[in-house]
Amino acid sequence: MSELLLEIRDLHVHFSSAHGMVYALNGVNLRVHKHETMGLVGETGCGKSMTALAVLGLIPPPGRLIRGRILFEGEDLTRKSDAELRAIRGNRMSIIFQSPGSSLNPVYQAQAQPLDVLKYHRRLKKEEAREQLLNLLGRLGMPDPERIVRAYPHELSGGMQQRVMIAMAMLCNPALLIADEATSALDVTIQAQILKLLKSLRSEFGTSLLLITHDLGIVAQVCDRVAVMYTGSVVEIADVVSVFERPQHPYTQGLLHSIPVITRPQRRLEEVHGSVPSMIDPPTGCRFHPRCPRAAGLCCQQEPELRETLPGHRVACHYPG
Amino acid sequence: MVTRSESQLLVSVRDLKKHFVLAAMASFGRHEVVRAVDGVTFDIPEGDTFGLVGESGCGKTTLGRCLIRLIELTAGKVLFDGTNLLQLRGQEMRRMRRQMQIVFQDPQTSMNPRMLVRDIVSEPLRIHRLANGKELENRVLDLLERVGLGREHLRRYPHELSGGQKQRVCIARALALNPRFIVLDEPTSALDVSVQARILNLLKDLQEQFGLTYLFISHDLSVVKHMSKRIAVMYLGKIVESGSVSQVFNRPLHPYTRALLSAIPVADPKMRQEEMVLEGDVPSPTRIPSGCRFHTRCPFADRECLEEEPHLSELYEHGHFVACHRVAAIIADQQGPVSSEGQ
Amino acid sequence: MMGLCIMVAFVGIAFVCPWLAPYPEDRIEVHTDQRLLPPSRAHWFGTDDLGRDIFSRILLGTRISLHSAILVLLITISLGVFLGVVAGSFGGYVDEAIMRLTDIFLAFPRLILAMVIATILGPNVTNSIVAMSLSWWPVYARLVRGQALSLREQDFVLAARSLGASRGHLIVSHILPNCLSPVIIQASLDVGRVIMTSAALGFIGVGAQPPIPEWGIMISLGRNYFLDQPWIAAFPGLAIIVTVFGFNLFGDGLRDVLDPRWRSEAE
Question: Cβ C158–B70 below 8 Å, yes or no?
C-alpha cells in the first residue's frame, strides 16, 4: 500500500434549517492513498458531495463542521485558515463538478479561468500561462487546443467543456483530483472519453482520484477501491473486486442486486425496501435498520463502527456477510 | 418489417419525420432546420415492449411524442391498431387518446404543482366524463393502489412526495383511462438506483396484469435491455440498427451500437472492457453530415459512407436490421478484439 | 407582516373614517375663522387654507383612494388577464393582434396617457378611474401572456393534452391558475401605484376636484402655502408614502405565501 494522501476521520457536518438540524455527515471515515483511484458511491442525499466540499473547506453556510479531522499530505485541513486553504485549492487539490457549463463563466473565453489559476498559484504572466495551458491540453489529447481556449463556453460541447475543467484542475499538478459526478450530465459515448481521460491522469501525472458517483458501473471500471456511503457515513469500504464480489453490508448488497446488468439478465430486479430517511430525524442506532432484511435487536440501539471483516475490507454492520 | 402472424401489430410507424424550423437567426432570414426525426420506420406488436435508445439529440423523445401526436409530424404515418392517427381530428383524436398514454421523464414537472394527487389522477376521468362523485374517488383510490400508493397520498401536493412516489402518481394517471399503449419517456432517469428498481418492477407487473404495450425510451442500455423485447438504436434522427434484444446486444452490427455498448461501464470489475472510444462530438442536428450521418465519428468510414446514406436492411439474421455500408468489414474485424481508437 | 398591518389599517380606516375623524363635517364645510392653524391638540395635523381639519380630511381621503384603487384594479385585471390568457394560449394571429394592441397603449407613458384620457373625458373621480384602467391593462396582459406562453410548453400541460383535454380545459384548469399568482402579486404592488397616480391626477387637476378630500388635491392646494404652512402639503404626502410602502411590503410578503411549496393540506 502506498503512502496515505488523504485521511478523513470521524467527520460530522450539521446544517441548521427551518425544520430542524440536518445531520448531513455523521462520522465519515475515508482514506485515499497516493496514485490511487477511490470511488465514493451512494444515492441522493447520502452526503458524498458534502464530503468533497468539506475536504476543500467549502461547506456552504449554514453548514458547520462539528467534529472530525481532515488530514491531507500530513496536515490537518480543519485547523487551517481561509488563506491557507485557498493556497491549497487548485494547487495541491482540485475538484471538477457535474455541469461544466455552470462552472465556466459564460462571458469570458474558456482560457480565462485556467489562466487565473496559474496567475494566482504560480505567479505566471499571461503568455507563459497560456503556453502551459496549451501544453497541458495537448497532453490531455485535445484536438486543436488553440481554437478551444479562445472559444466561449457556449461554443463548446459538454465534453469539451469538461476537458477544459479537467485541464484547469490539473494545471498545478495536484496530488488529488476530486471528480463530483463529473460525467453524469454527459452522454454515454462522451462519458467514455472523459473517463478514459481521467484514468490517464494517474499514468501521466500520478494524480490520485476521488471519484464521486452514483453509477456503480463507473466505479467497477475505473476505480481501485470504493467506499459506499449511506445517510452521511461510509458503510463499506474495500477494493473494488472485493466489494462487488463479496459485499458485506446489506445496503451494498441491495444496491448491487437492484441494478440491471447487461451481462446478467433477470426477470425482476431486487428491491431495497423503504426509502431514504430524513436527515433531520434519522433512525436510532444503525440508520439503515428500518430497511434492512437482517435487522435485529442491537441494530436499533447502537450505531455500528467500521470494522475489518475480511482482509482489507471494512464494514459498518453488526451482522455483516 | 417484421410481421407476426400470431400477435397483432398495435403501432406501426412509417417513414416518420419531424423537422423543426428555427426562427431566422443572424444569417439574412435563412431558416435553420432541425431534422429531429428524419425518416423512422418500425412496428410494435401488442403486448410487447419496444426499446428505443440513443444519446441526447438523437430524436427519441421527439419520436415518442410524435407517436401519440403530442407534436405534429412533418411527414410519415402512424397507424394505431390499423387507424391512421393523422386522419383523426378534434373529438375523434381526443377519444383515441384514451388508448395511448405517456409517462414523462421528470415527474416533478409533469404534474401541476397546484393540484392535489387526487385531482391529478382523477383529471383524465373527469375530462372524459367517465365518473364523478363517490365513484370517481373510488376509481382514483383503486389506481393509486395499483401503483403501490394509498389513501394517505390522496390529499398531498406533488412537492410533498418522494421522486419514486411522484413517478407512481404519473403512472397511475396514465393508467386511468385503461390505455393499451404507453410511451415511457426515460421514466426512471431522474430517480435513484434503488427507486428505479421498484418502478421498473412495477411497470413489468402492470404490463403483465393489463396486457399493456410499451415504447420504452432511454439512454441507459442496461435498463432498456432489461425491459424490452425488441430494440432500436437511434442516431441523429434515424434508426441505425434494430432487432431483438439478444440480436442487438450479443451481435451488434452497427459501429455506433458497438461503441455505445462498449461505452457503458459494466458493474463488474472483472470485466474490464476494451473500449471502442469514439472521437469527436455528436454533430449538431442542424448540420447533419452527408451520406451516412455517423461517418464523422466512425472508425470504419470510407468513401461510400461520405456520399451515400445507407438504408435499414436485413442482412444476416431474420429480424435484425442495420443501416451501414461496412457491415461485412466490421464482422471480419469482430473476430479480433476491438481497439480502434478513432481516426 | 408590517405591510399587512398597514394595509389592514388602511382598509379599516377607509371603512370607518366618518366615525374616526374628529371633524367629519370638514369634508365639505369651511371654517374661515380657523384658517392655517399649525398642528395642535385640537387639530393634530393643523388646518388648511379654508380652515378644514387636515387630519380628518386625510382619514376621509382613504375612502376615495381605496375606491379608486379597487375599481381600477378590478377593471384592469379582468381586461388584462382575459386578453393575456387568450393571446398566450392561442398564439398565432390572435396573439399578434392582441400584442399590437398592447404595444399601442404601451407606447405612451402611462401617466401622460391617463392625463390625456381624463382631460378628454372631463375631470372627475369616475373618469380618472377609467383613464387609469385604460392605461394600466396592457401591463397585466403582457404579464399573463408571458406566463401563458411558457406554461403551454410545460410538461404538465402536455400531460393534460395527452389525456385528451380540450383547449378550454387546459386554459381553465392549468394555465389560468398558474398565471394568477404573479397577477396577484403585481396587483398588490400596484395598489400603491394606483393611489400615487390618482393623487398625481388630482394634483394636476384632472382627477378628483375640490372640495373632495383627495390626497393629491390636498397636496396641490398646499403647494401655495408650503413655505410658511408646510403641514398642509406635508401630511397628505406622508399619508401617500406610508400607504404605498405598506402595500409594497404586503405584496412582497404575498409572493412568498403564494408559492405552493408552502402549502400543505394539513393546514
Answer: yes
Q: How far apart are CA B98 and CA C196, in angstroms?
A: 54
**3-class DSSP assignment, residue C233:** helix
Give, for B144, the enclosing helix (H) or strand (E). helix B133-146
Q: Which of C147, C151, C163 to mutate to test the interface with B (most CBs of B within 10 A)?
A: C163
SS3 A318: coil
Q: Least CA distance to B95: which residue of chain C?
A: C164
Q: How many interface pairs between B and C have CB atoms less than 8 angstroms apart? A: 72
Lookup result for grid cell 432541425: B34
The pLDDT tens digits of the residues spanning A284-318 come to 888 898 888 888 888 888 888 888 888 889 999 98
Residue A303 and residue A282: Cα distance in Å, rounded? 12
Q: How far apart are CA A218 and CA C252, in angstroms?
A: 47
B114 to C260: CB separation less than 8 angstroms, yes or no: yes
Of C66, C17, C22, C52, nearest in space to C210 by CA = C52
Residue A189 near chain B (CB below 8 Å): yes
Nearest in space to B242 (alpha carbons), one of B331, B327, B323: B323
- Predicted TM-score (pTM) of the model is 0.82
Checking if the pLDDT of B193 tops 70, the result is yes
CA distance readout (Å), A204 to A136, A140, A173, C64, C150: 11, 9, 10, 79, 49
Cα separation, B188 vs B184, in Å, equals 9
Q: Using CB atoms, which residue from B68, B102, B157 is nearest to C263?
A: B157
Q: Using only C-alpha atoms, what is the Rg of chain C?
A: 22
Pairing state between β B83-84 and B313-314: unpaired
Helices (H), ranges, chain A: 48-56, 82-88, 100-103, 112-122, 126-139, 145-150, 158-170, 188-205, 216-222, 240-245, 250-258
* Per-residue pLDDT reduced to its tens digit, C112-164: 888 888 888 887 778 888 888 888 889 899 989 988 888 888 889 989 988 88
In Å, how far is A239's CA from the nearest CA of chain B? 10
Three-state SS sequence of B147-171: CCCCHHHCCCCHHHCCHHHHHHHHH
Segment B304-311 long-range contacts (CB within 8 Å, at least 24 positions apart): none
Q: Would you call A259 an interface residue with chain B, using a CB distance cutoff of 8 Å?
A: yes
**pLDDT surpassing 90 at residue B240:** yes
Check A220 against B200: CB less than 8 A apart. Answer: no
Do A and C touch, counting CB pairs below 8 Å (3 needed)?
Answer: no
CA distance A194 to chain B (A): 10
**Strands A306-310 and B32-45, sheet pairing:** unpaired
Say yes or no for a CB contact (<8 Å) between A258 and B204: no
pLDDT digit string (tens) for A209-256?
999 998 898 999 899 999 999 999 999 999 999 999 999 999 999 998
| Phi, psi dihedral angles at C156 (to 5 degrees) | -75, -25
Rounded to 5°, the CA angle B332-B334-B335 comes to: 80
ipTM score for this prediction: 0.82
* Chain Cα centroid distance, residue A165: 16
Nearest CA in chain C to B182: C162
Binary contact (A221, B225; C-beta < 8 A): no
Closest-CA residue of C relative to B127 is: C165
Chain C neighbors of B110, CB-CB under 8 A: 155-156, 158-159
Query: Amino acid identity of B32?
Result: E
Pick from B104, B114, B155: CB nearest C159: B104
> How many CA atoms, within 13 angstroms, populate the side-chain half-sphere of residue C131?
29
The dihedrals phi and psi of B303, each to the nearest 5 degrees, come to -55, -45
Cα–Cα distances (Å) from C242 to C7, C232, C246, C248, in that order, read: 10, 17, 6, 10
CB C80 within 8 A of CB C139: yes
